[in-house]
Amino acid sequence: MTVAELSRPIATVEDYFSLLKPRVMSLVIFTGLAGLVVAPGPIHPLTAFSALLCIAVGAGASGALNMAYEADIDRLMKRTASRPIPSGVISRGEALGFGWSLSVASVALMLLFVNALAAALLAFTIFWYVGVYTLALKRRTPQNIVIGGLSGAMPPAIGWAAVTGTLAWQPLLLVAIIFMWTPPHFWSLALFSNADYARAGVPMLPVVSGKRSTRLHIVAYSLLLVPLGLLPYVLGMAGPLYLAASAVLGGLLLWRAVQVTVERDETKEPAARRLFAVTLLYLFALFAALIVERVVHAAV
Fold this sequence. Notes:
Four Helix Bundle (Hemerythrin (Met), subunit A); 15 helices; globular
């Protein structure tokens, strides 16, 4: 053991938990739960719990592997420099072993306790986030978050498959909503984290194409997202609570996106920060409405 290893702080459970990107994981669990709830047919509570646990562990494993493979980038960015690997609490090799072990375990347990399709979709999600987004796209193209966003959009399909063992247009519509939501959400973050990405050499859209182009892209994707977000009601998949949440917050999201296009304070990017917060609220409200409506309907 080297002197550097002996002097390294001892990693805690909290440090390993932070490798799992718990905030991202919580959103993944929530959208996966929506897929479980809206799927037709019964599911045993233990099977449902197993499915959600596997989704959570798979998402956390992806986060740990992402941090391991991007440790050199994280060291250069203020927003990520305090993460366990850049701060020296956990080594890159330890994070890789942790992440790959959890990845294999999550897929194997999904196959064993749920079904083969749910396990295959979970494996695809991990592969897409780690192999496609992190390793193939992140350092090469400003479209990294557009193409890579498919991984974060998959949990509703996994939840649906856990119940039915099949796929249908309903979960794919939910996947499409999250997929279209991802660019305005992350590009608003990229606007006020632009200096970090430029310092690390990550070709996010504001770094490559400039802030003006990024703002126009945000508006374009928002204009596609809001009508898409109304489709579950139009197609009879959701009820009036969902319609209200989608219409009101969709309107607010569009308004905030337009405000970003006329942003003048480029030092703090207040409009981009407000849009980032609204995108989180928008997605949470839509999926919460789906869950509440289905639970109430089942209870009546």
